[in-house]
Amino acid sequence: MSMAKLAFRNFKSSLRHYLILILSLAFSVMILFHFQTLLYSSGFDVLGTRNKEYIELLIQMTSFVLGCFMFFFIWYSTNVFLTRRKREIGIYVFMGLSNEQIGQMYLIEAILIGAAAWALGLGFGTLGTGLFQMILRKLSDLAVEIQFTPGLRPVLTTTLVYGMIYLVFMAKGYIDIVRSSVLSMISAAKQNEYVQQKQGWLATKAVLGTALLVTGYYLACKEGRDSVMGNALLAVILVTGGVYLLFGGMIPAGFQALAGNKRFLYRGQRILWVNSFIFRLRRNYRTYAIVCILMLCSVTTLATGFALKGRYETIVQFENTYTFQLLSSRDDLEGPARELIEEHSEILFDARLSLLYLDQSVLEADAYYSRFGILAYSQVKQLAQRTGLEFPFQELAEDEVIKASHQYLLSMITAREDVDIRIHGTTYHQIQDTSIPYLGYLQESSGYYIVNDQAYERLRSLGEEVYVYNYRIQDTENFAKIRDRLDQLVENTPENKTARIAMDPNSNELDWVKMLYTICIFLFQVFVLAGGSIMFMKLSHDTWEERERSQVILKLGFDPGLLKRAAAAELGTAYGLTFLVMAISSVFSVRALGNMMFTDLTAVNLVSAGVVFGILLIWYLLSVQAYGQGYRKNEKR
Fold first, then answer.
1. What DSSP character marks residue 396?
2. Domain end residue (candidates: 502, 536, 555)
3. N or C of the chain: less Cβ packing under 10 Å?
4. pLDDT tens-digit map of 156-196
């Protein structure tokens, strides 16, 4: 029998075992293909040049992340596949086959698996393009119809990326087999990832892992200004290392201590699975750590998507607080502007206030603006009453200020209170930073501070005072007509400094943000599927190893149902510990994200973790089913 026929027969007989691997790889190919279709399509042209450039950059970044994910996922999955096949194909040595011939058989099987995943991925990707478009448009809530047509370039790019990565690890597996001995191939499964550890070393890793996690959690939630980016990066590194050491040190040490407690060990069916779990934890702790990190990434990514959606809506509402704003050195434009606007639309509300602009040389603050604006406390309070905006501030002391900021999509400056600024040599204490849109879109352009009325009067001689006229109209369909009339009003005041701001309610300038949070949701699917697939493949591999042990236990007269319950408890512990560590870590990662977005994401965190729990539950039930099938086979024997 030729190597090709033998490999094909092995592939057919083991197809059920490879199904999860093939489907997981196919899903990765499909998602990468869909994003390449978006990148090479002209569908985003209708959103304008700026949005198109932003979205293309986001898709390129996402494709890079997907490529990195595919690299590590294929690396891990091919290692599991090779380990599982080594013991079986090693037997062919006794049939007279050389290592090179066995390597060729492995290559053929790997090619069949990779080709099946590639074909399914591109096939489902092509057939599901319409569904992908519909989901994309529904999630992003884009206001225009976008059509994407699969082409040759997305197919070639996806094939090239996937093929290069897959070929690298195929070649690695072939070289590994050629250089392996018969004994190493037959005993490969039992040698894989086994780590001899002493209690002292476990304790050291437990203490070090706990210290890394606590430090990482602290840095993630620590507020700051210039140090936030560095703290966030260091927190990612520390939490990743801490999770690795937690599964490799503290958790094994804890279960070994529980195994030494006879009252705990001999209750129920624990004696059948606790020691087995400890042994497998020593072998699989790297896998559990990887899955935990992937799930943490998935929760954080999904929380980012939800948060971005909320921030987008808040920013749009912030910028559209007023439809029109006039800035002028004249204090008599309120009447003419009102009459002009009311010719075309009813005014929902309007308000006027004075604004004092100071040069950067007069005001020293830890903010990057060329000039700053000063607002009087009483005028802002009156404006809030007229427009219905909140004003939850007590009367300010003469040395206190409130900063009026714009709505941030994401900011690396999280310390917003207890900050001092200096105005003309006098120190003022910033007691609060608010993003209530008292100045609407104008609040985006400079740094604004609300001061006590007496302080405002003292500062008037230091800067340039202008008057701000704010209007919100009801009939937005007449927006363009009113804008043109206001432009005429501005042109008729050449001797005075007058400017107009108009916020088009139908503007799509921020549509790229919609695409960003949509991409986060798709990345969540990739991460959670990757984690679940790795966990399932590893535990299915363990099931394959358990065949001989379970057969011996059944021959001793143990109830098969008892064995299944013990297996379910062991699997539940593996999945449960992974979820628990992830859930605890996500509290801090999502809180850090909330600090940078200046919003409370507690509810988002709970929802995201709940979604991951549901998906892990499905993988757990599939794993229990796989164990059950293994026991049924042993019962028949």
1. P
2. 502
3. N
4. 988 998 888 888 888 888 887 777 765 555 555 454 444 44
